[in-house]
Amino acid sequence: MSVKNIIFFGFLGFIPVSMVAHFLGWSDLIIFVTAALAIIPLAGWMGTATEEIAVVLGPSLGGLMNATFGNATELIIAVLLSARA
Fold this sequence. Notes:
The chain is mainly alpha-helical. 87% of the residues lie in helices and 0% in strands. The protein has one domain (3-84).
């Protein structure tokens, strides 16, 4: 297992930490930081998945997939933050 994967698995530990922080009423800054750290491996795996699909689909559809799903993390954050406001 590569060092990158080990680090990604370590960052996955922030998913339950951010959920617990939310339910225990911790500071909004701590919740945001832990949730942001939890997104790092998920965004990395989504990028790897779109690259693998792009190899099969070809350069045109692969580029469209990367353009579409490359910003999915930012889009999810924007939607959730706007829903909270």
